[in-house]
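Quick question about two entries, pasted in order.
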Amino acid sequence: MRLADKVAIITGASSGIGRSSAYLFAKEGAKLVVADIDNAGGEGVVSNIKTKGGEAIFVHTDITLASEIKALVRIVKNKFDKIDILFNNAGITAGDTLVEEIDESSWDRTYDVNVKGIFLATKYIVPEMKKAGGGIIINTASMAGIRPVSRIADYASSKGAVITLTKALAIELAPYNIRVNCINPTITETPLVELMSEEWKKSIKSVLPLGRLAKPEDVAYAALYLASESAMLTGMGINVDGGHGI
């Protein structure tokens, strides 16, 4: 198994990409920490993993609050004594709104979750990885951060920030044997997609050579690669995009 005895924290793991990644990581031997604000969904993921013989815990975590990230680190350290992998997956969908109609509080919320949340988790988990002599950080960015479509200025710019943050962290943390990479999915079949208009989704499909949206499992396998065999990759973004970036 590719992740045998590794301890992996996945934020936003109660549904979508995070849930698929949690199941796949557990199948590959990882001890899972499901971190999410959705208690019922998170506990459900943990129950499913345990039913199949895996090891997992749920920790209610609002990634925008430093106090909750600190509590997450304490709980994981007490339970597993280490943190090998941090998958900063939690995020929110915004956009489908003209820039002049974007509410300032909505803009701030998008950046709090999509960017600040990654900063806080990294800030408080990196010291543990340094003590252990290394680790792996994976961030969920988006093809929207590379090739935005119309009416997603808030979301696209937040994901562009994630891509640049990934590169900056990779440079800073390389001397400590901590690799940092990101995944850039095209629009993916998750509950968040239901918030977007059919017109918007149609515009995405029209630029995908493979002609379909990504599935959560497509992204999960990219995350597994970054968490295992990709020993010489850092500061990189893997486009899970059906050819969107061509």
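Here is the second entry:
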Amino acid sequence: MVCNESGALTSEVELSTEVLSRAALSNIVSARLWRQTGRVPQPTRAQTARERVRSELTAEIKDAARRQLAAEGAAALSLRAVARDLGMVSSALYRYFPSRDALLTALIIDAYASLGDAAEEAEAAVRGRGVLSRWMAVSRAVRLWALENPHEYALVFGSPVPGYAAPQDTVAQATRVPALLSSLMPDVMAGGAYGPAGRADGRVAVPRRVHRALAPVRETVPALVPDDLVVAGLMAWTYLFGAVSFEVFGHRTGVIGDPGAFFEYELLRIAELLGLVG
């Protein structure tokens, strides 16, 4: 008997099975990529065979976990079930993810990263067309990603998983879309379009208590952006994800006949709040 990386005892037979499982799954990954793209993965020179197999197996484990999310939900995610799906001994998975929470964290980071990529690519494609086009593009990308990846969206924006607390590792990816939306605010000011009713200079007085409440977000927003626009931006961010969540989780089913058309109109109404349209 020998100890695996998690400290659990593993028999030589289990280790042999694990090695065979690695080789088999490596072949599965290569065959799957060949069917999808007509090519097989080509490692870099610096990548060893062991690193390549580990990378492929990690991807396979996460794919199996996503299938389990879709079938059972995040609360039911189990390393044992994932191992069974892949035809591996459960002890082998501990070499890749030492616990269910570690696997959940990896899935959450991947989901936020994928969403962030979609939003940033959409914004970059229209960057020269003005702030309104950028707001619309980011919002559409968020909705489209959520509709195409409902189980991953539910993982990061749905009900909390009992007993799981997201670590600091998730923050960098989780804040990408809010940071992208925040980056629009200085351009709103620079364009001179922001001027909500309330004061001749285009600024609405924000109560002192609310000003203090904005302290954390004010650290990331340029000083030229007034408190009332920061509030409007936070409301837009909240509304965007609230609208998308209602659609993804079925709360608008039977209420809205054409969700896409209604969403477009909603975006324009929020754009009015941000001062992007007259």
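Reply: DSSP finds 14 helices and two strands in the chain. Residues 2-98 form one domain. Hope that helps.
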